Amino acid sequence: LRTKLPAVGTTIFTRMSALANEHGAVNLGQGFPDFECDPALPGMVADAMRAGHNQYPAMAGVPLLREAISSKVSALYGRSYDAASEVTVTAGATQAITTAILCCVHPGDEVIVIEPAYDAYAPAIELAGGVMVPVSMQVGEDGYSIPWDKVAAAAGPRTRLIVINSPHNPTGSVLRRADIDALAAIVRGTDILLLSDEVYEHMVYDGAVHESVCRYPELAERAFVVSSFGKTYHVTGWKIGYVAAPAALMAEFRKVHQYYVFTVNTPMQHGIAGYMSDPAPYLELAAFYQRKRDLFRDGLQGSRFSLLPADGTYFQCVRYDAISAIPEADFAEWLTREVKVAAIPVSAFYSQATESGIVRFCFAKKDETLRLALERLAKL
Ligand code: PMP
Ligand code: GLN
Predict the structure, then answer these.
(1) CA-to-CA separations, 209 to 275, 311, 333, in angstroms, rounded
(2) What residue's CA is closest to ligand 2, atom 9?
(3) What is the ipTM for the molecules in this complex?
(4) Helix-helix angle 266-275:63-77, to 10 degrees
């Protein structure tokens, strides 16, 4: 069989979680909470199952859920998406991302991806026959930032799509108004589309606002905006997310979606729709995770790790050059085996070999899990 994805192996998350389990390490690698969701949420899903919501829902998702998503986006970001034609429920953000890329990227089209980048973008571009054009973020004392002049230089007549992700995995950086303005200047007057991965939209710290693309009409009119209930409601295993996009883009999205998964499981959609009627869980998420971020950062102050800014997401990146000079993948493996704390090498988020001496920890963990990890890390 001639492979369609020659460079793809098993994801770094799967590999590091397996290594963590094998060595009994505290798993701060793969991003997922080690605590339970609000029990009211599975209760609502069970109620939906018992009430007989067990057959295929509408192809684009349960209407009640699409309406709840539309209301939330409108309340938070001021853009109204028509629940009937501009919102689709997906099997996690991953399916939304892959579907969005497959529905608009033609063979030979270029897609600009800012690296380090979440690992789902590149394979989807490759499956579509597109050409990924990576642009590296710069990293200094103030953390990671996007060199917009380089993005502008990478954009040209073959550019079909630019993928952005804020809050950003793995760096924990967030787009600011100046970034949005720079992006708008690049796409203005072109037919470049945007894929905005906003799965960590509710995890922005220190009082900053999430600069959703939905806030900016000239960006939103050309964007697929993606989010994930897995992140927001502490249920990463449920694999439910959504995409919002203008009707013309959504029509193309749904052509792929209906043959890719057709639709997403019914009872969880009903459960989530009911749960969304209370905004508190997502409005309180930033404070919830900011406290964990601070606990984790405080615990590493005075250690030989140096902390990069963590303005959003549930990830903390650290430099380890005072401890070791080995490559990131080796360091993450050593940390897992010998120190019994798993991390993710940031090099895994680049298409070309890039070593920055930085690894990523996930702090979406019980306080006791974080304390145990800190005890081990602070000794290094
Ligand atoms: N995008 C980013 C940036 C992510 O970190 C994740 C979570 N791994 C996803 C997309 C995928 O989300 P989901 O689990 O809902 O498919
Ligand atoms: N998004 C999660 C992370 O970055 C992992 C998702 C996955 O395992 N594919 O850690």
Answers:
(1) 23, 11, 36
(2) 13
(3) 0.98
(4) 40
Separation of 30 CA from ligand 2 center, angstroms?
5
- Domain boundary pick from 252, 278, 304: 278
Rounded Cα–Cα distance for residues 109 and 147 (Å): 22
What pLDDT digit, counting tens, does each position of 269-296 carry?
Answer: 999 999 999 999 999 999 999 999 999 9
| Ligand minimally distant from the alpha carbon of residue 13 | 2
Q: What is the CA radius of gyration of the chain?
A: 20
Please indicate whether residue 334, judged by its CB atom, sits closer than 6 Å to ligand 2: no
Count of domains in the chain? Answer: 2
Q: 46 CA to middle of ligand 1, Å?
A: 25
Nearest to 250 by CA among 94, 128, 89, 107: 89
Q: Kindly give, in sequence order, each residue whose CB lies less than 8 Å from that of residue 74, ignoring residues fewer than 6 positions away.
A: 80, 81
Domain endpoint, select from 244, 278, 312: 278
> Helix, strand or coil for residue 285?
helix
| 376: CB partners within 8 A, 6+ apart | 26, 339, 340, 341
> How far apart are the CA of 198 and the centre of ligand 1, in A?
9
Judged against a pLDDT cut of 90, whether residue 185 lies above it is answered with yes
List Cβ neighbours of 186 (8 Å cut-off, separation of 6 or more): 148, 151, 152, 155, 162, 192
Find the 323 Cα to ligand 1 centroid distance in Å.
Answer: 31
Beta carbons of 132 and 126 less than 8 angstroms apart = yes
- Give the tens place of pLDDT for each residue, 58-78: 999 999 999 999 999 999 999
Quick one: tokens of 116?
């380090």
Domain that holds residue 323: 12-30+284-378
- pTM (2 d.p.): 0.98
Q: Give the pLDDT band (50/70/90) at residue 360.
A: very high
CA distances from 176 to 144, 213, 312, 313 (A): 12, 11, 12, 15
Q: Is residue 170 part of a domain?
A: yes
**From the CA of 29, which ligand is nearest?**
2
